[in-house]
């Protein structure tokens, strides 16, 4: 199982492996020390709680999706189709737009689910099947604020 810890200071993503997780990691970008507390649960594949980075117990599930990739496909599709549209090839232009949307859909459907910590945005990939509920904006608001107060970011 892979864990991607988010630095609470600079938001850098710091990948660690559960099996040989250290007691603390240092952020390579800003030098902040982040204490880790990996419990037996994720190692044994029994869920991820509590979060090793913030001890939080609330998680949500989301697709392992890089929004930048999806956006790139849409932009590329729109650009190419605009060129065809400019030359009066409407039908080709619309087909390319539709194809770009379809590619996005297919890619999205094949993505695996990952588990994300509401508080510190640490991501959990692999061994553990994500059982957390879908993202809830209300919960996220509350827990993020609580966490940021605790680490003194607000
Ligand atoms: Zn950092
Ligand atoms: Zn956390």
- Global shape: elongated
What structural class do the secondary elements suggest?
A: alpha+beta
Roughly what is the average pLDDT, rounded to an integer? 86
Q: Oligomerization state of this entry?
A: single chain
Please outline the major beta sheet. 5 strands, antiparallel
Outline the low-pLDDT stretches: none
Report the helical percentage.
25-40%
Tell me which ligands are bound.
zinc ion
- The overall strand count is 7
Topology as a string of helices (H) and strands (E): EEEEHEHHEEH
Number of helices: 4
Rg over CA atoms, rounded to whole Å, is 20 Å
The strands making up the biggest β-sheet line up spatially as 2-1-7-6-5
Per DSSP, what share of the residues sits in E-state strands of 2 or more residues? 15-25%
Distance between the termini: 32 Å
Structural overview:
There is one protein chain. This protein is of the alpha+beta class. 38% of the residues lie in helices and 19% in strands. It has a 5-stranded antiparallel β-sheet with strand order 2-1-7-6-5, with no helix packed on it. The relative contact order is 0.18. The structure holds zinc ion (2 copies).
What keywords describe this structure?
154 residues; alpha+beta; 5-stranded antiparallel β-sheet; two-stranded antiparallel ribbon; 4 helices; binds zinc ion
Write the layout of secondary structure elements.
Blueprint: E1 2-6, E2 13-17, E3 24-26, E4 33-35, H1 40-43, E5 59-63, H2 67-86, H3 90-110, E6 113-117, E7 123-125, H4 137-150
Antiparallel strand pairs: 1-2, 1-7, 3-4, 5-6, 6-7
Helix pairs in contact: 2-3
């Amino acid at each position: 199982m892979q864990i991607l810890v988010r630095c609470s200071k600079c938001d850098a993503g710091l990948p660690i492996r559960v099996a040989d997780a250290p007691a603390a990691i240092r952020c390579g970008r800003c030098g902040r020390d982040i204490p880790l507390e990996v419990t037996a649960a994720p190692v044994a594949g029994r869920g991820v709680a509590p979060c090793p980075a913030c001890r939080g117990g609330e998680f949500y599930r989301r697709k392992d999706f890089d929004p930048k990739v999806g956006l790139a496909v849409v932009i590329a599709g729109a650009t190419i189709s605009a060129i065809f549209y400019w030359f009066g090839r409407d039908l080709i232009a619309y087909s390319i737009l539709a194809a770009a949307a379809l590619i996005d859909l297919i890619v999205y459907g094949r993505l695996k689910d990952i588990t994300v910590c509401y508080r510190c945005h640490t991501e959990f990939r692999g061994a553990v099947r994500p059982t957390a509920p879908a993202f809830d904006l209300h919960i996220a608001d509350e827990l993020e604020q609580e966490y940021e107060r605790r680490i003194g970011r607000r």
